[in-house]
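Q: A small favour: would you put together sequence and structure tokens for a protein?
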Amino acid sequence: MPGVYCRDIHAFSRCPRTACAPRRRREQKGSMQAGIATGKDDRARRRRLARRLIAVQEEQRLRLSRELHDDLGQMLASVALELHSIRADSAELDARLARAAQLIDQLSARVHDAAWSLRPADLDRLGLRACLEDLVSMLCAQLGVPGDVDLEALARPLDPEVALTLYRIAQEALTNIGKHARPGRVSVTAHIWDNKLRLAVEDNGQGFDGTVAPGPHHLGLAGMKERLALIGGELTVETAKGKGTAIYADVHLSD
């Protein structure tokens, strides 16, 4: 019978093709399993790295937020108090001092807003619910539209990473509404069922075509999906031109 040379770990021996086939299949199966395991390990390492990078970014944001609020914010407040207390000998100089004090007040308010957007201090102290209520209140005041808020489900304590992730997603979604949606109403709600939390951010604005690849105005959606996936969550977007937009962030809660 014709044969082939089959290499063994101990020696070369002449054997039929049929005898070598099972070994080749085992080797191929082992290689495939090793490749799958390597791929899973690589994905796990990438997820760990992404989570670490986000954690470092949030630490930097927190530090900068505190510096803006505690240092620069306090200094501006002191300057404003001094200017408000000065009285000049002429009406013209009084008017200029009042104008300078007004500009300092405006700058102080912008510094406060910048510090708050970097990392709201109340997120750690008061929790996600209070921070989201503030976000919605500020956006609706800026746009001059009513807002519906139902966040009773967020009264329970949440894992800090989950709370921060949901805050960032809501922040991005509300920022997009303010920039692009032109809504007549904004809604932010949260509900829990089957140990799953859903945060919904909805508007009745102009929407966009959800069947095409995101344009430059909607690149934040990809980042929201990636960030939510890092904690085992899922993002769903429902939208159409002229029909508004609904963004749902679903996360599983720990027992």
